[in-house]
Amino acid sequence: FQLVVALNPCPCGYHNSKTHECTCSPYEIQRYLSKISHPLLDRIDIHLEVPEVNYKDISSERSGESSEAIRNRVKYVREVQKDRFKDETFKYNSEIPENKLKRYCALDNNSEKILELAFKKYGMSARTYNKILKIARTIADMDGCENIKEDHVLESIQYRTMDKKFWGN
After folding, report:
1. Which residues, at least 6 apart from 7, have a Cβ–Cβ distance to it below 8 Å?
2. Banded pLDDT at 27 (limits 50, 70, 90)
3. Residue 5 is inside which H or E element, if any?
4. Quick one: which of 5, 72, 97, 137 has the fewest CB in 10 Å?
5. Which has more confidence, 96 or 61?
6. How far apart are CA 72 and CA 141, in angstroms?
7. Cα–Cα distance between 100 and 140 in angstroms, integer?
8. What are phi and psi for residue 47, nearest 5 degrees?
9. What is the Cα–Cα distance from 142 to 79, expressed in whole angstroms?
10. Angle at the Cα of 23 (from 18 to 26), degrees rounded to 5?
11. What is the C-alpha to C-alpha distance for residues 6 and 30, in angstroms, rounded to an integer?
12. Separation of alpha carbons 88 and 86, rounded Å
């Protein structure tokens, strides 16, 4: 199944807003965010901050990428993964067991250093480390790359913004 959840950035909802002033103290914000348990957050693969939408963007005729184009890209990447894992008991990157991560999510030296730095800086768990590797593998697949590159690791780390909010500097 796919779980999607939402959370305000603070009790008043306006922390980091460009159009409204936040009335919360840093303590109130930290207390509010700390209501989410780390073990629960650790089990969510991707968490992002989404900026507020302004009127001009929401009312414009301009549209982004079509749902069909996105669907086709996802279908292609899923086929790549099914092919990669054809001799395994799993089909997708999200299902790679821990004992197979080194094989399917190998990193070059620079990528490994980046991930090590993030791991130490943000106090990541082994579960978070594994999720970052799997997401980086998927990003590489979407880029049509056989190997995970530095930018794939960096992008994957960026999809863990709540880790940085709670435990980062």
Report:
1. 33, 36
2. very high
3. none
4. 5
5. 96
6. 14
7. 17
8. -140, 130
9. 11
10. 95
11. 17
12. 6
